[in-house]
Design brief:
Jelly Rolls, mainly beta
């Protein structure tokens, strides 16, 4: 599944034996690309906004609020797309 969308920028902040902490920055319309999570993880949105979540089963829009964290288990497979007309960012914390 290839796309002409711009790519989100991942800035790794911490990578040790316990956690991986990555800041994700998305220009409008940017995507992570399809990926499968190898760890349980927590997302902490840095701002209010919407992300389009493409999965193999269905697409959905997540309405995120700044500072309102959420958790997902290992194995999630998706593509995350900035559905806003402004830059969006969040911090992802993967638990090893």
């Amino acid at each position: 599944m290839t796309s002409n969308r711009p790519k989100a920028v991942a800035i790794k902040q911490i990578d040790n034996e316990r956690v991986i902490v990555t800041e994700w920055r998305f220009e409008p319309g940017a995507e992570t690309g399809w990926h499968k999570h190898g760890y349980d993880y927590i997302v902490v949105p840095g701002m209010d906004g919407n992300l389009l979540l493409e999965t193999t089963k269905a697409n959905s829009v997540a309405e995120l609020k700044a500072g309102q964290s959420y958790y997902r288990p290992i194995g999630v497979e998706h593509n995350v797309i900035n559905a806003n007309d402004f830059e969006f960012y969040f911090v992802e914390i993967e638990l090893r």
